[in-house]
Design goal:
The chain is an all-alpha fold and about 190 residues long. It has nine helices and no strands.
Length: about 190
């Protein structure tokens, strides 16, 4: 980052390569649409580059770029109109590197149904709650790191996560028993 701040554009390219996966994954979890997530990730890096003078060297670049990404995704979600989920859309499948062996058809179907259920539950959350859940449980960030990213307090993060878990529980209670069985069997 110091080389980037000194005007080395190639150094910023190295930062993009290092964090592009994290930025894309966050955008995808927030937006649930691959093309829109790619656009959001690109926009996040463009905004970071355009605002290099605002970067605080005392913070990690990863935290800063994920903060920019999350804010941009929340803005996109706020601009969205009511979106109907198509039954034909395929949910995000886990990356092959994350599985140790190839699942059989039944296991793959259960995993797919569970992923659809989880993403549906995330989609129903308020964007601020969704962001807190994604940062905490997908990125395994601490309350302090999330608070720093969102420019808030740790207690506010804990409150958001508590409310998010309450909302998720309410949505789970409203799910048909067949969907819950898929979630339990796939765990």
């Amino acid at each position: 980052m110091q080389r980037t701040l000194a005007g080395d554009q190639q150094a910023f390219g190295e930062l993009v390569q290092r964090y592009e996966r994290d930025v894309f994954n966050l955008a995808y979890r927030m937006l649930n649409e691959r093309t829109e997530a790619e656009d959001a990730a690109q926009e996040a890096f463009l905004r970071a580059y355009a605002n290099l003078e605002r970067y605080d060297p005392d913070r990690s670049f990863k935290t800063w770029i994920l903060s920019i990404t999350s804010n941009h995704c929340i803005d996109r979600l706020r601009r969205r109109r009511l979106v109907w989920l198509s039954l034909e859309e395929e949910p995000m499948m886990p990356h092959p590197a994350l599985t140790s062996d190839i699942p059989g058809p039944e296991e793959a179907a259960l995993t797919n149904e569970r992923n659809v259920l989880v993403q549906g539950l995330l989609d129903d959350l308020n964007p601020d709650y969704r962001l807190a859940v994604v940062l905490r449980y997908w990125y395994d960030l601490s309350y302090a790191e999330i608070a720093e990213m969102l420019d808030t307090t740790e207690s506010a993060v804990k409150s958001r996560l508590f409310r998010a878990r309450q909302a998720l529980a309410e949505h789970l209670d409203a799910q048909p028993a067949s969907a819950l069985n898929v979630a339990v069997e796939g765990s």
